[in-house]
Amino acid sequence: MVTNRELEERVDTSDEWIVQRTGIRERHIVAEGETTSVMGIAAGRAALADAGLGPDDIDLVICATSTPDYTFPSTATQIQDGLGIRGGAAFDIQAVCTGFIYALATADKFIRSGSHRRVLVVGAETFSKILDWTDRGTCVLFGDGAGAVVVEAQEGTGALSDRGILTTQLRSDGRYRDRLYVDGGPGSTGTTGHLRMEGRDVFKFAVGKVIDVVREAFAETGAEIGDLDWFVPHQANRRIIEASADKLGIPREKVVITVDRHGNTSAASIPLALDAARKDGRIKDGHLVMLEAIGGGFTWGSALVRW
Question: What domain range includes position 195?
Answer without folding.
Answer: 164-306
